[in-house]
Every structure is written in C-alpha cells, then in structure tokens.
Q: What sequence folds into this?
C-alpha cells in the first residue's frame, strides 16, 4: 500500500459521502490523518467510522464561520498543522432560467463560492508552507447543461479563485489546483430526483457524450470482509448539499 500521505494531516470538507468520502479514504489508506466534515452529525460519524485509519468526523457547515473556526481549532489542538485541504462541499440544484429563485441562488453560491472562500481562508494560518489546496470543480464549468446555470457559474468561479490563489500563495510554496470531474453518480446527484425511477433515468443520461458513455462512480473498492454502512442520508428534492 502506498504511503504517499504518511505523517500528513488533511481536511476534506463534504467528506461524508460521494467524491469527498472516497478522497478521504485514499488519504487514510496512504497513511494520513484525515478530518472529514458534513452538516449531519450522524452521517459524519458513520462516514468516519467507515474508513480504516486515523479519521475524525467533525460536524461543520462550510457556510458558517463559527463552524469553520471550531473545525480548524480542533485540527490545531490534535494535529498542530495542516498539510492538505480538499474543499469538496458543494450544492447543486436544477433551476431553468425563468424559475430561478433567490433561495436557490443563495444556496448554491453560499456553499460553492462563499463556503470555498471561507474554508481556504480559515485554513491558511494552519496550512504548512509547501502544502496543498485542492478545490473540487466540475466539467459543468465548461459544458452547458439545461437547468444547471447556477451550478455551472459557481464552478467556473471555483476555477477563477484557484488561479488567483495559486499566484498569491506562490511565496509560501502552497499549490492550489482544481479537479473537474465529469458526470458522477453520487448521493448529491441522486437528491435531484424525486423517485428511484427518476434517479435511474437521470444517471442513465448523465454519461451521454462521454467516451465511456456512462456516468462515473465515486464508489471505492471495499475489502471482502468489511461491511458497508450508509455514509449519508439522501432525501429527495433540490437543492442538495454535501
């Protein structure tokens, strides 16, 4: 097994399910200490218990300055520093032009833009020189999809933030990068569908136009003798957050 993260300390926001949860698992498997966050305490606790290694679940909403202060204070007390920050918490909603409401605008941009800015800014005092910041973007920033203008705009904003922060943090040797997954079957996407049948239809169409002609999956391989526990609840109805 790789020790790429041996003696490293990482925070993964939105780590209770989907891409964030798999990312946290990979870091832990590589020997790192990982703090994962989410808004639901039960989901965060279950997700942390589901990953072998030094994994700590912290209930935190990335839109809340108080929650972020509490998160990074815990990291400082227990670990003393931060080497890797993965800002993965996100919100997605389907809202075609003409149906967009102020509430949907606030939900998407508060999580995806404000939450990203505050997460990175609050982490900076703890982030070691030479550390790494990874922001989860999306191919939605580059490829149009009906009804997803708010999500696409927010993810385009993530790319703009990363480019500027990479320049600003160069003196400290901190790298800032964006990963832009294509269509991926995650609990967050599943929440866009009201029924199981609608979800199946949504997932079936997500991969259209990709080389694999199907949606990717965030699921990680599990040992044969390890049980799988639900890491997050997925109530139906947009907008949804992780």
A:
């Amino acid at each position: 097994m790789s020790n790429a993260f041996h003696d490293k300390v990482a925070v993964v926001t939105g780590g209770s399910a989907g891409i964030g949860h798999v990312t946290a698992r990979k870091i832990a498997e590589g020997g790192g200490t990982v703090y994962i966050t989410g808004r639901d305490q039960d989901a965060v606790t279950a997700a942390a218990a589901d990953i072998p290694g030094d994994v700590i679940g912290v209930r935190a909403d990335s839109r809340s300055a108080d929650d972020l202060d509490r998160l990074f204070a815990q990291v400082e007390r227990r670990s003393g520093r931060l080497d890797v920050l993965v800002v993965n918490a996100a919100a997605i909603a389907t809202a075609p032009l003409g149906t967009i409401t102020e509430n949907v605008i606030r939900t998407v941009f508060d999580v995806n833009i404000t939450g990203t800015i505050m997460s990175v800014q609050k982490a900076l005092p703890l982030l070691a020189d030479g550390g790494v910041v990874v922001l989860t973007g999306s191919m939605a920033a580059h490829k149009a999809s009906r009804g997803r203008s708010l999500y696409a705009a927010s993810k385009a904003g993530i790319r703009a933030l990363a480019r500027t922060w990479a320049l600003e943090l160069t003196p400290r040797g901190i790298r800032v990068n964006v990963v832009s997954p294509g269509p991926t079957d995650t609990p967050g996407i599943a929440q866009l569908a009201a029924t199981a049948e609608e979800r199946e239809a949504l997932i079936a169409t997500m991969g259209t136009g990709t080389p694999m002609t199907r949606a990717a999956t965030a699921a990680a391989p599990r040992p044969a003798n390890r049980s799988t526990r639900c890491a997050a609840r997925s109530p139906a109805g947009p907008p949804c957050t992780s």
User: Anything to note?
Assistant: Residues 9-184 form a domain with the Rossmann fold fold (CATH 3.40.50.720). Helices lie at 18-29, 41-49, 65-79, 102-123, 149-168, 187-190, 196-206. The longest strand covers residues 127-136.
